[in-house]
Amino acid sequence: MSNAASLKRHYRTLFRFRLALRVLAAAAMLGALSSGPVRAADPPTIRVGWVVPVANLPSVLFEKPGVAHHLGQSYQYQPVRFASTVAMVTALATGDLDIGTLGYSAFAIAVTNAGMKDLRVIADEFRDGVAGYYTDEYMVRKDDPIARIEDLKGKVVGSNSLGGAMDIAMRVMFRQHAIDPKTDVTVVEAGLANMKAMLSERKVVLAPATLPFSYDPELRAIARPLFTQKEAVGTTDMIIWAARAPFLAANRAAMVDFMEDAVRATHFYTDTANHQEAVEIAAKFTKQPVNNFDDWLFTKKDFYRDPNLLPDLAALQKSIDLQAELGFVKASFEIKDYTDLAIVKEAAARIK
Fold first, then answer.
1. N or C: which end of the chain has fewer CB within 10 A?
2. Same fold for the pair 45-128+236-350 and 137-233
3. Where are the domains of the chain?
4. Residues of 112-123 as b/e, b for ≥16 C-beta within 10 angstroms?
5. HSE-up of residue 300 (Cα within 13 Å, Cβ side)
6. Contact at 8 Å (CB) between 206 and 291?
7. Is the pLDDT of residue 4 over 60?
8. What is the mean pLDDT of residues 231-248?
């Protein structure tokens, strides 16, 4: 037999051998399918970002045992801490995060400046300035002779984040009182935790204060509010939950179950009957004394939280329009075009 013929016979035998292996493998698979149910795929892990412990409810969302009925069955939950909402937007863009707790300003910047056109508002976190609830304060020293907003001209004022929600409210108030923030005052940026020291050391004459820092007894001893965020801009939907449309489409059933559990958890935390247990959870999570939270957390001294996690779209639209007006985003847009509340509404309807 020639070498060519021998080689041809060798490859024919090898082909038949491989074909037989494939047939055996297919038969084994069919046997496995017929002998019992296929093992279900592992439930998806929903990664939710947060910045401020407790204030961002996802940090402690399921710390109450038994509140999450679907956890571990249709979904897994992974809270992820971030240093800022800007970092959270980056993680949403790269697919390293599924849901972000974003300030309205970060959401608008992500949509307009970063081009994330598939970003959607899916739920609410908390609002500033709802009647009967807390609103952010802009504080001056009690011993400073500043009686009116006009008295701030020529002074150094603090801002926690240029272009952020509290910064925008401050600029709106300045504009209402004929103060140009570019020429009439000097704006110094610093973290909210540092504002007490900035005010105490007279590095600024005006400092923004928000929860929990604004209830610090040491701050209250030296400072008083000159105006509030509500006085500047009315009700503000400060923090919303946002996710990208492809993630929502790919995980809709799991998301409805997750949001049902999130609504149930919100009901638990905001129910006055559970106040003591709720503040104990907060204290344990943050490793702080219970009395740091007992007087205000999840009460009317706190920000307003919608029981069914539904955002105030009119307030969001007003805030985004202000961002555009002040030049922090390229242009305004219709928030309703970037909103998907069907999941949270379906979830809330399940809870009696």
1. C
2. yes
3. 45-128+236-350, 137-233
4. beeebeebbbbb
5. 4
6. no
7. no
8. 97
| Architecture of the domain spanning 137-233 | 3-Layer(aba) Sandwich (3.40)
Q: CB–CB of 201/170 below 8 Å? A: no
The Cα 275–Cα 297 span in angstroms is: 8
Q: What is the CATH number of domain 45-128+236-350?
A: 3.40.190.10
pTM here? 0.84
pLDDT digit string (tens) for 257-291? Answer: 999 999 999 999 999 999 999 999 999 999 999 99
Residue 74 DSSP symbol: T
**Which strands make up the sheet holding 100-103, listed edge to edge?**
100-103, 236-244, 119-128
CB neighbourhood size of 141 (10 A): 17
Q: Which token pair is 57? A: 């409810």
Among 238, 227, 225, CA closest to 177 = 227
SS3 257: helix
DSSP code of residue 64: S
Which residues are within 8 A (CB) of 3 and not within 5 positions of it... i.e. 6 or more apart?
Answer: none
Q: What percent of the chain stands above pLDDT 70?
A: 88
- CA-to-CA distance for 58 and 76, rounded, in angstroms? 13
